[in-house]
Amino acid sequence: MPNIRKLALPMWKTLNLNSIQEAFSKWKNLQTLTIAPLISLGDTLSLELQAIGDNCRNLTNIKFLYRLDKDLASMIVCSFPSLERLSFRCSYACVDAAISLINGLPNLKIFNLSHCIFTQPNKIRNKIDDNRVSVQPNGVVGKTFRVLGMKPEEELVQTGTKKLVRFMVCASDCTICQDVWEHFGLYNPDRQTLELRYFREEQWKTDEIKEFEF
User: Fold this and answer.
1) Per the domain annotation, does 154 fall within a domain?
2) pLDDT tens digits, residue range 136-195?
3) Among 20, 30, 128, 175, which one is most buried in terms of CB atoms within 10 A?
4) Orientation angle between helical segments 17-24 and 43-55, nearest 10 degrees
5) Does the residue 33 lie in any domain?
6) Of the candidates 175, 168, 178, which has an alpha carbon nearest to the alpha carbon of residue 210?
7) How far apart are CA 7 and CA 191, in angstroms?
8) Are 47 and 17 within 8 A, CB to CB?
């Protein structure tokens, strides 16, 4: 299928770098890619994403079904500099990593972080006086904390709304975030359960970038 334009890639633990290079070298017209949960992050993944970016120069839309951290953000900026639409909906998302994507992808127009659990250093949390739901277990002192939703005055929201055509992020009082993440496992989030809830309420139709619809 050399003219394929939209692809959902399953978990690729059985694929090696040569297989990925060979496959994507045939898909020069690929525009939209959804990548299922990744097995591991590291040098191998960096090479795999670079192989996709090198072979698919028309690729402008990517959805990751995986947590966003600083390492993955750096790989995305290096491998897909022409990216226009990016989604990490319903994932864990490091605030600093998200900001680095907004600043590091010059062509990025739409960024979807709706219904994410955001992670930030505790020193930042101490400066924020609000009543958002924290999903850090009570009594646990760690280097980061997790929170549902963003407030308008926070750096991530300010950066996204100023630089992007559309920045999709939930407010701190999003009832879907609170309902799903709190009742279906804060510490061991189940993506399948979350997606099934969306399907039942048909909420997913309005909470995702249209290019990722099949």
Assistant:
1) yes
2) 543 344 556 778 889 899 999 999 999 999 999 998 888 878 776 766 555 454 454 455
3) 30
4) 10
5) yes
6) 168
7) 20
8) yes
- Those residues whose C-beta lies under 8 Å from the C-beta of residue 38, and which sit 6 or more positions away, are 11, 12, 45, 64, 66
Determine contact, residues 36/91, Cβ cutoff 8 Å: no
Does the residue 143 lie in any domain?
no
The number of domains in the chain is 1
> Around Cβ 154, how many Cβ atoms within 10 Å?
19
What are 112's two structure tokens?
């979807």
Question: For residue 155, is it within any domain?
Answer: yes
Structural domain boundaries enclosing 92:
6-117+149-212
CA distance 180 to 129: 24
- Residue position matching structure tokens 């909470």: 207
pTM of the model: 0.81
User: What Rg do the C-alpha atoms of the chain give, in angstroms?
Assistant: 17
HSE of 33 in the Cβ direction (CA atoms, 13 Å)?
Answer: 23
